[in-house]
Design the sequence.
């Protein structure tokens, strides 16, 4: 079955082509069938491949489609690699992606046919790019997917392109991603010059013999790429702005695709990072800082999607922390559980927005009775992200935190504070929006009704996954050797694990850590529930809260130190360099040619004798040259 | 005779022909100068045809005969060319009442 | 100096003198006559080189047929008068200089050619005899020979079409 892995990206590509090319001719139901069906087909193929990879003794399979670049000694095949890591990501992408597609059929139903088709074609292309990214057997194929994802995010964030603000958000996402991509690209070239190949097997095989400084450089550059794609400090600001797109798109970007690309890339190149401890520490520090920083911002946001966006940034920080402390399995585990509950939360938020046409949580309240299904599933999602056992987030977050403790207790402490804040802001959101009394207009209240089944079914499925997803990775302290995911992913990370001597936290101490983190999360939940459910915070924030509400003024800072100088420089180059020098050269060439041809035109007398004379002169010159050259 | 003599003789005739084409404006004289150039080439070809004769004659009795055949064909073509060329000159004279090539500056347009 | 060499020099001087006079003469009729002298000189060279057939053909075709054709045209159209008032002296000078420069360049280019030891056989060899040329012409070159008849035919048709009055 692994041989047919090319079917997985093929279906979304076909869906993209059909919906994109025939967008003016298809009806909505047909578009929905094509859009969802293609991803469903991919999901089915992925599941079949997955069942094959679960068999013991499964070796990574390389499927070579064709030679992509063949230049001298550099051979880059267009090949797919099927192993445990890629198939896991495939399941997440196609599974969650399918639910989001299904959800979108209802959510986007008010769009015109043409835009509806455009939306689904973008969505399919997005899934296709992500699949390419995950399946590629070398860094170049990964980079193609990487760029495709960046493009699709641009297209989807700016889906409602008539609003200037949304366009700006799309451009911001694109530019931020480009900055990261430069890092990736340089790393790619460095790899080619160092290893002479970009195939995973070659690079990872030769990595141990490579000089440590080069490895550190490559991994740091890759990290720059990852911070762009996975929204880490300093390139995180695009992700909260990416809320401009339709809500299911946000769910797709935040949960199944795009932001997990950076995590996947680092997890894929785990050997390189294990061999470059400096980079690994940088990853961990960036991760833990981002997690903390984003959580502080999330506390004071009032837009339901903004809160979720910053929580994504924060959770991605956790994943980076996990990668940085060598808990690759934990990070991938968190990607998976996060995909479940973040997709759930976003789709839930979408359901709320769909019902109210309102994003400000201060104007919601009391939705518990009005939207029962959405409420219940959203609550489960909040519990999962807050890290309350036995929901999914608890297991994955705990694995990362205990690994962080083993590496450096400071990571653990900051992570713990972040966990507290996570629980706090998520339940602030939940309590403000769903508890208390309805604060919207009477008109809105009349129109509120629970969303249709295309929306609630994905919510329910994701809620179930959020509840049980964590049991794939039960820590050893509870039940020995029952971490299914670790056993499954073992072949991928085996090499790194033997290279780095992981310090196992002792049984009783680990239990203590788990207890502390659960306690902290509960404190956050209970405190914010009690504080916000009856009298939510409605006024404008003051003092330090205002700084947080304005996101630490990071956007303003970037604007001041980067955007404005670049604009000034651009104006300077426009007026001096472009107009005077470049235009001068271009116009000068034109003028010289014009003048020269005006003079040369006199030669065309029409008299045969003159022409013959020219010819003879030409012959003379040729012979003269020949005589001179011969000497 | 040394072949150089023939070469320089032919080149001299050829260049006189060229100078004639360049200086004269009477179409008929230009035409005659072209014939002169053709003949210079013919002379050179015949001289060359006899150049390697001694070295090759033992095995190859007709060595160099191609050169003379070539001259023969040049004469054939020249004869055909002259008949057409003179017809053109006659027609040109009928139309413009002049055979001065400088009146024929239609190439400008 | 043998008789051949003396003949060579006389014929060469005749040819060059005749050629110069062709260019210089004001009247086209004189040009034609000088050109006929050049052809005779060249035919003499052919005889020196033992190419009798070509010598005869040169006389018959060139000096005989072609030059007579020229004469007829000149006389029938009454072109003998010097119809060209030479307005542009510079073009003339430029033409002479260009021709001279061409000569210089050719001589310069060929001067050092490794041909000094090569001799064009005079008075020897019978490839120029009509017998041998005829064999070659009707064996190896029979197809070009026949095709040249088509060329003549088309030239004749062309001349008639161009030359007839509308």
Sequence:
């Amino acid at each position: 079955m692994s041989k047919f892995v090319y079917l997985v990206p093929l279906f979304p590509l076909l869906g993209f082509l059909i919906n994109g090319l025939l967008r003016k001719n298809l009806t909505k139901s047909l578009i929905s069938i094509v859009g969802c069906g293609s991803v469903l087909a991919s999901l089915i193929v992925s599941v079949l491949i997955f069942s094959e990879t679960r068999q013991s003794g499964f070796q990574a399979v390389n499927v070579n489609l064709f030679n992509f670049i063949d230049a001298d000694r550099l051979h880059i095949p267009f090949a797919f690699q099927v192993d445990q890591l890629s198939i896991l990501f495939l399941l997440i992408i196609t599974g969650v992606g399918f639910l989001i597609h299904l959800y979108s059929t209802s959510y986007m139903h008010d769009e015109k046919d043409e835009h509806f088709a455009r939306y689904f074609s973008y969505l399919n292309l997005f899934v296709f790019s992500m699949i390419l990214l995950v399946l590629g057997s070398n860094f170049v194929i990964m980079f193609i997917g990487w760029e495709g994802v960046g493009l699709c995010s641009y297209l989807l964030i700016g889906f409602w392109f008539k609003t200037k603000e949304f366009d700006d958000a799309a451009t911001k996402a694109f530019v931020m991603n480009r900055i990261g991509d430069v890092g990736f690209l340089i790393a790619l070239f460095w790899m080619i010059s160092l290893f002479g190949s970009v195939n995973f097997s070659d690079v990872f095989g030769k990595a141990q013999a490579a000089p440590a400084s080069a490895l550190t450089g490559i991994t740091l550059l890759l990290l720059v790429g990852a911070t762009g794609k996975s929204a880490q400090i300093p390139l995180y600001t695009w992700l909260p702005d990416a809320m401009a797109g339709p809500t299911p798109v946000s769910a797709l970007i935040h949960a199944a695709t795009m932001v997990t690309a950076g995590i996947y890339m680092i997890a894929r190149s785990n050997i390189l990072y294990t061999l470059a401890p400096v980079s690994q520490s940088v990853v961990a520090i960036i991760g833990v800082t981002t997690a903390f920083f984003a959580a502080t911002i999330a506390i004071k946001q009032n837009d339901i999607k903004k809160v979720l966006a910053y929580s994504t940034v924060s959770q991605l920080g956790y994943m980076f922390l996990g990668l940085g402390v060598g808990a690759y399995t934990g990070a991938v585990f968190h990607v998976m559980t996060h995909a479940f509950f973040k997709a759930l939360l976003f789709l839930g938020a979408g359901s709320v927005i769909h019902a109210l046409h309102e994003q400000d949580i201060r104007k919601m309240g009391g939705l518990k009775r009005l939207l029962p299904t959405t409420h219940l599933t959203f609550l489960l999602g909040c519990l999962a992200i807050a890290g309350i056992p036995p929901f999914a987030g608890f297991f994955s977050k705990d694995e990362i935190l205990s690994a962080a403790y083993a590496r450096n207790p400071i990571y653990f402490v900051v992570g713990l504070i972040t966990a507290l804040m996570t629980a706090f802001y998520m339940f602030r959101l939940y309590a403000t929006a769903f508890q208390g009394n309805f604060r919207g207009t009477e008109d809105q209240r009349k129109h509120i009704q629970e969303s249709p089944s295309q929306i609630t079914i994905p919510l329910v499925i994701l809620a179930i996954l959020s509840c049980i997803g964590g049991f794939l990775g039960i820590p050893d302290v509870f039940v020995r050797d029952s971490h299914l995911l670790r056993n499954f992913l073992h072949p991928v990370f085996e090499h790194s694990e033997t290279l780095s001597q992981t310090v196992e936290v002792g049984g009783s101490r680990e239990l203590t850590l788990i207890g502390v983190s659960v306690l902290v999360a509960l404190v956050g939940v209970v405190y914010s529930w009690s504080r916000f459910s009856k009298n939510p915070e409605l006024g404008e924030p003051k003092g330090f809260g205002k700084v947080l509400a304005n996101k630490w003024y990071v956007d303003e800072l970037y604007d001041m130190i980067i955007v404005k100088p670049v604009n000034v420089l651009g104006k300077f180059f426009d007026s001096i360099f472009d107009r005077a020098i470049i235009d001068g050269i271009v116009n000068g060439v034109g003028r010289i040619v014009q003048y020269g041809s005006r003079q040369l035109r006199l030669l065309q007398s029409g008299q045969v004798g003159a022409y013959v004379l020219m010819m003879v002169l030409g012959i003379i010159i040729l012979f003269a040259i020949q005589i001179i050259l011969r000497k | 005779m040394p072949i150089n003599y023939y070469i320089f003789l032919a080149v001299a005739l050829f260049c006189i022909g060229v100078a004639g084409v360049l200086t004269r404006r009477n179409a008929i004289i230009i035409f005659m100068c072209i014939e002169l150039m053709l003949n210079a080439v013919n002379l050179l070809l015949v001289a060359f045809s006899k150049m390697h004769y001694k070295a090759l004659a033992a095995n190859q009795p007709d060595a160099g005969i191609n050169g003379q055949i070539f001259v023969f064909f040049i004469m054939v073509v020249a004869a055909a060319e002259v008949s057409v060329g003179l017809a053109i000159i006659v027609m040109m004279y009928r139309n413009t009442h002049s055979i001065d090539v400088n009146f024929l500056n239609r190439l400008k347009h | 100096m043998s008789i051949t060499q003396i003949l060579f020099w006389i014929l060469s001087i005749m040819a060059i003198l005749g050629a110069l006079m062709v260019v210089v003469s004001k009247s086209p009729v004189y040009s034609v006559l000088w050109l006929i002298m050049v052809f005779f000189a060249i035919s003499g060279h052919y005889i020196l080189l033992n190419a009798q057939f070509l010598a005869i053909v040169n006389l018959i075709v060139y000096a005989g047929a072609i030059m007579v054709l020229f004469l007829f045209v000149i006389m029938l159209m009454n072109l003998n008068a010097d119809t060209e008032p030479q307005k542009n002296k510079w073009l003339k000078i430029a033409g002479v200089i260009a021709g001279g420069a061409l000569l210089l360049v050719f001589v310069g280019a060929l001067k050092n050619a490794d041909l000094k030891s090569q001799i064009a056989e005079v008075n020897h060899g019978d490839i120029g005899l009509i017998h041998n040329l005829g064999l070659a012409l009707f064996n190896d070159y029979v197809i070009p020979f026949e095709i040249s008849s088509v060329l003549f035919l088309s030239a004749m048709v062309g001349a008639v079409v161009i030359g007839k009055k509308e």
Notes: The radius of gyration of chain C is 20 Å. Chain C has two domains: 3-81+89-128, 129-166. Chain C has a mean pLDDT of 85.
